[in-house]
C-alpha cells in the first residue's frame, strides 16, 4: 500500500452552523462539533483503522535511518493544522495516537506548545504537529461572516456578476485572497509533503516512484477548513481551483488523497477505499 494524505475538516462551529464564510474569525468548536470529531476518531482513527497513527509518525522512519536523521529532520513532518482554534481543537480530540501530550510547532511564531490529552490505548506514535498558515482557510476579506446568498446580493447591488453568479473559485474575495494566491501557498505545502513521502520510496525503471520494499509507507494528516481542503485536493492532482466549485466537505469529514498505481508521480483523489481487514 502506498502513502496517503488524509484531509480532515474541523467539527461544527457557530459559523458553519449558519453557513457563513469564516476564515480569520477564530471560532471554537460547538458542542455538536466536538461530538462530531469524537465520532470521526472512533470510526477512523486508531491501530488497524483507516488512519493508523503509526503510519503518520516519523518514529518508524527514524528507526530505519538513525544515521541519516540529521538530514531528514526538516522533512519529517506528517501532521499539519492551521493556526485557528477550531482546527487545533479538532486535532486534540482526534488524538492521532499521540501518548498523553500533543506538541504543536507554530511556524509563524517559532514557538512550541503542548496540550495534555487522555492516555491512548494500543501502540502509540509521537510527532510534532505543524501549525502552518499555508493550510489556512481562504481569506474571505470583505466577505468574512457572510453567507453565499448575502455575498451574491451585495455584488448584485454593486452591478457585478450580471452574466453568472459569484463563485469564490473563480473570483476570489476583495480584501482577501484570489484563486492564484491560494494556489501558490497550497502548491508550496504540497511540494513539502511530496518531499516527505519520497523518503520511503524507490525509483523504478520508467521513472516510477513506488514504496520501498524495506520501508513502511508514511501517511500525512491535514486538519483544516472546508474550502481550503477542497482546494488542496484540486491542486494535489494539478487541477485549477475553478474545478472545486462542486466539491463539498462536511464538518468532521475525512477525504483521502493518494497515488495511481502507487506511483508518487501520479497523484490522485481516492473516491473509495477497501475496508481494512481486522
TrEMBL record:
Pfam families: His_Phos_1. One of its GO terms (molecular function) is sedoheptulose-bisphosphatase activity. Signal peptide: none annotated. It comes from the Eukaryota. InterPro entries: His_Pase_superF_clade-1, His_PPase_superfam, PGM_Phosphatase. One of its GO terms (biological process) is ribose phosphate biosynthetic process. This is Phosphoglycerate mutase family protein.
Amino acid at each position: 500500500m502506498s502513502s496517503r494524505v488524509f484531509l480532515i475538516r474541523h467539527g461544527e462551529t457557530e459559523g458553519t452552523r449558519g453557513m457563513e464564510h469564516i476564515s480569520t474569525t477564530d471560532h471554537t468548536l460547538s458542542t455538536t462539533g466536538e461530538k462530531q470529531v469524537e465520532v470521526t476518531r472512533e470510526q477512523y482513527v486508531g491501530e488497524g483503522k483507516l488512519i493508523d497513527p503509526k503510519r503518520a509518525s516519523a518514529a518508524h522512519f527514524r528507526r530505519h535511518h538513525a544515521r541519516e536523521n540529521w538530514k531528514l529532520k526538516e522533512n519529517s513532518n506528517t501532521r499539519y493544522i492551521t493556526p485557528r482554534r477550531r482546527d487545533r481543537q479538532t486535532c486534540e480530540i482526534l488524538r492521532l495516537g499521540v501518548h498523553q501530550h500533543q506538541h504543536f510547532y507554530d511556524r509563524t511564531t517559532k514557538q512550541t506548545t503542548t496540550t495534555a490529552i487522555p492516555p491512548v490505548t494500543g501502540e502509540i506514535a509521537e510527532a510534532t504537529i505543524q501549525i502552518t498558515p499555508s493550510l489556512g482557510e481562504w481569506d474571505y476579506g470583505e466577505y468574512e461572516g457572510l453567507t453565499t446568498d448575502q455575498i451574491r446580493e451585495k455584488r448584485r447591488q454593486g452591478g457585478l456578476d450580471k452574466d453568472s453568479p459569484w463563485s469564490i473559485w473563480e473570483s476570489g474575495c476583495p480584501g482577501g485572497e484570489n484563486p492564484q494566491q491560494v494556489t501558490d501557498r497550497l502548491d508550496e505545502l504540497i511540494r513539502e509533503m511530496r518531499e516527505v513521502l519520497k523518503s520511503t520510496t524507490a525509483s523504478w525503471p520508467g521513472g516510477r516512484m513506488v514504496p520501498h520494499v524495506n520501508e513502511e509507507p508514511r501517511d500525512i494528516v491535514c486538519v483544516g477548513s472546508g474550502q481550503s481542503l477542497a482546494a488542496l485536493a484540486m491542486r494535489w492532482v494539478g487541477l485549477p481551483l475553478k474545478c472545486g466549485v462542486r466539491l463539498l466537505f462536511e464538518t468532521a469529514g475525512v477525504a483521502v488523497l493518494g497515488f495511481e498505481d502507487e506511483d508518487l508521480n501520479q497523484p490522485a483523489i481516492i473516491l473509495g477505499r477497501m475496508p481494512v481487514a481486522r
